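Q: I have 311 residues here and want to know how they pack in 3D. Can you give me a structure?
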Amino acid sequence: MTTAAPMAGRFAHGLTYAVLGWAVAYGGVRLAWTIGDSPEFGRFGSDLLGFTGWPSVALCVAAGVVAVALDRQRTWRPVLAGIAWTIAAALVAAAAILLPEVVALLLFAVGPHADPVGMASRLGCVTGAALLALATFGYQRRTRGDCPACCRTVRPGLRRSAPAWWARWAAYAAVAGLVARFAAQVGVGFDSLTADASVIALEIGLVLAGVLLPLALTHRWGEVWPSWVPLLAGRPIPRLLLLVPGLGLGTGIVAYFGTGLAQVASGSSSEFSDTFLWAAMSAYCVLGLGLVVASADYHLRTRRACGACGR
């Protein structure tokens, strides 16, 4: 047996302890806020969406229990993996407000109504989601496939150098989602999109994320710097430079606007019409899903070959 297998096992145990530590620490804070006095959370009224009070405590407990189950299970159980991914997704959705806060920080547009306590809580929630996701990835690596070093399921010699057809369609869907989002804006006007420099910068970033990023994930020029880029032309593009924003933005967009759609469906009030909200938020969800799918293919296509089996 290669040394990679025991190393993977030790790493998996470490992740289990990390999830348990997070569940105790963050769950303890949620418990204290539930049975005692919780802080004021500014204009949002809450630090999390959908999971507050006892449901947030239960979510932390569930994450810890599932992490232990993943660590002890030695065979592939799709239902167990599905439960783990569902809990991780619920944690991300609960902290969905973090997306506009991070964007505001990047644009140096943090207003006077910023809520540092709420943001810290949402960061803690997302940290738990990331730890549980890593633990689930580790479980899948240990229990799927026949190579003890990588546990990959693809047959040797089938590594792809070109994007899959479904990844290209996902990238084009992401671009179409962005176009649909701006088309929906026609109904309410573009005055709000040109209000100040920070909003304009946000729209420029959105265009880059919705057009350049998905296309780069599915085309050759997303792997090697084009000839017109000074000093870097012809050199490989670091895969994390595209993979991290692709997965991060895609997941954040789906969580934030998916939660928004759920709020619209529940009848929450807004200054905009339901028709506009459904159209705009659905378009954002298509954009986010397209980024996630294109990023997944980019990861599978550009990851290093296993030194033991070549896959």
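Q: Anything worth noting?
A: The mean pLDDT is 83. The chain has two domains: 4-143, 165-302.
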